[in-house]
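Translate sequence into structure tokens.
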Amino acid sequence: MNMHIYAFGSICRGEIDLGSDVDLLACVGGPAEQIDHEKYSVYRYERIQALWKEGNPFAWHLHLESRLLFSPDGTDFLNDLGKPARYIADARDCTKFQRLFDRSYHELRQSSNSATFHLSCIFLAIRNFATCHSLSLGQPIFSRKSPLMVLPSLDIDPQAFSILTRARLLSTRGYGENITNEEVVAAIKAVAIVPRWMEALRSQHSP
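Result follows.
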């Protein structure tokens, strides 16, 4: 079966710490039962081509930050696709992540049950919001620190941002120290500024 294997993500940016893993992509031409879907993101060639035509953020991520590990014939499938189409779904995507933040923040303030999960969702919302915003400006930032790297940056206490990052790692990989009740309270207070920050970024697209 034809197959191309790539690494992408933090390892290709050199953004490595003890919580980092290795993101692997397998581009395949058919069923791939021999590939562990827990370890690889598995996509059919035609699906990747469709993402390129859509200008999907994941296509841009791969275009800018992937490295070929294996090719059956020396070809580089992703490189041969060229540049993805222009990203035009920023308004829709930013609205989606704004709503994710609002919902998760509300749930977190209502109850401490599933606090780590809700903090993880808040991290996902602000990171992806910042990434989609940066991509819409033609200056894509795929780092997990993207909220701190856009302009205006999210003016959040570094310790609070670290709590959000830990919550994401705990929820997705089961890695790291548990979040304490005191840290939950601190994070709730710190992220109260997020809605204003999101509106400030979105205002840059206003006529």
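Note: The first helix runs from residue 10 to 13.
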